[in-house]
Prior knowledge:
Number of strands: 20
Radius of gyration: 48 Å
Helix content: 40-55%
Oligomer: single chain
Largest sheet: 3 strands, antiparallel
Shape: flat
Structural class: alpha+beta
Mean pLDDT: 78
Low-confidence stretches: 45-73, 583-601, 642-651
Amino acid sequence: MADKKPQRTRVVKTAANKTIQVTETDAVQASTKLSAREVQARTQRKYATTTFGFSSRSAMDSYSSGGTSMSNYGNFYSPQLSTDFLEKPQNLRERRAWYRHFYEQNEYVGRAVDLHTMMPMSKIRLEKPKGQNQEQIDYMYDFFTEMCEEIKLFKNLLDISHEKNLLGNAFVYAEEHNPYEGDNEDVINELKEKGCLESERLFTDFKVIDRDPNYHGWKRLYVLPPDQVTVKKVILSDEPYIEFVPDTDTRKAILRSQESEYVFTQDGRQPLGPKPDVPPDILSKLRDNGAIPLDTDPYTGSHVYHMCNQKSPYQTYGVSMLERCVNTLLFWDKLRQAQTSIASRHMTPFRIVWSPGLSEADVNDLREQVDLALVDPDYSIIANYEIHWEEQGSNGRLLQLTAEYEQCENALFAGLGVTRELMTGESTYQGSRMTLEILNTQYLLFRETLQEYVENYLFKPVAKKKGFVEKDKYGRERLLYPRLSFTRLAIRDNDSFFDQAMQLFNKGSVSVDVILEMMNIDPVSTRRKVEADLFTTNDPAFNQFMVGIYQAAANSMAERYNIPQRIADYLSLEEVPQPPGQEEGGLGGGLGGAPPMGRFSAAGLTPERQAALNKVVRTLMADPAKLDAVAERTAASLTPKTTKKTVVRKKNA
């Protein structure tokens, strides 16, 4: 029998001043007994999906002891309840906080979101529709142009695109302009009367229909914070139920403002202005539920529009493109933290100084010398024995994570829908043609979404309230509103497309507006400038016309007047002597015995003959038919004459 281990007994007092005896021994044994509560918890049947299929087992089916686990079934697996489940965001608010953090801190995420935001929004234009009354169309076009400038349409579309790409959802609230709001009925009636007179004047003078000239359409556009907006799907309805849930301070300020004549700050002391006009139904719902319901019908007035990424019809919210990159970003951030902690630990290098065979006293002396050398950089250590000095830093201790970083980058590029060449710009159109075509298709679809929102939710309701309608040939009313268009995307090869467009333009198949839009030139403003420059010095055709007139006038004056001689005399030019060979032959040996003539002057002619020659030239230039008659007589005189007898003799022969 083994010797029994000695036991020790000691007295311990508890927190309740109770005294208990504890027996201790050196023979430590692991107890396998469970308490009643533990046995009850472990004997409960739990159902889970394992690697061996769907089955039921209890916790007592496996036994672990001494670091060894024995189990008859596979471990519990769930892709959602992984080991790092608690490290990930648990609700929608935390996810959005993560998206914003990585957009601000991660280079690739921020660059990709900015690219997806700005690339489709190259430049927007409003195009006039076709109609019968051009005055009506021009008036309508000017009205919508001013409204878009008032609501800052382009900037708001950029904000919508950024919110949608980053968070997956964008809630756009359009506030309608109401010219008749207020309590003073006299002012409202006077304003309505002025509107009626203005409407009659427009129709009488220009045949333009405007039901309410005081109505200016939409007042402004807001991008609501998604954390304060709740969306609920309504069964058997296409439109969701959307509520705006203000924060606690804003809610208290709104409710408190209705109790007095002023709006107070959060502390309730400083007045900021008059009491806001809040509808009673909104106040009641804000008191009861703490939320403000938002309308989704644009034809009833102010409304909210929910633009989101691709989702199923039964889903409530869209999914951000960063959601699929959360695992990669989390892994990358852990690698960064591990590398940073190692670098921080070895930021200050430590020193190792040693010398073989030193006594303890010599070691102490060497330590003092090293300390003095560290304090004074100019201090020198002089010894008659060998000293080794080494400094250990972070060199060679950092993790080699090149492969891991490359794997994370490739996963991010795939999840964000971009390529490395697109992020860095180190590529050509031909090398990334397939990727660019995919992005081009994606951006065109997003443009169609923006066009649908602007035309159906912003332009059509305003055109209907303003009365911008006309009837087609079938007698049906058709709304008149501008079409939203975009310039060509700049991610495709412009050279080949420009050549094809020029060929079509030369054949008359496309308009010059296509060429101008490729060069980011506004066709409308360009046409106006060209029309303004017509028949002016800025018109190239007019300049060519003037050059032709000057040339014709110069030729006529040179033929009729002695301008070359006057110019030569003014410049004091001397006559060029004639070569000896030309004095005898003249022009090809003389013109029928005429005296030789100079090449550029009339030095070989007498003044009488020069005057006669000028007279002949002027006569022939005035009547070219005489020159033909002289030529015919000359040809007839040079032809040998044949007698009648000779002709008869030839005939008889």
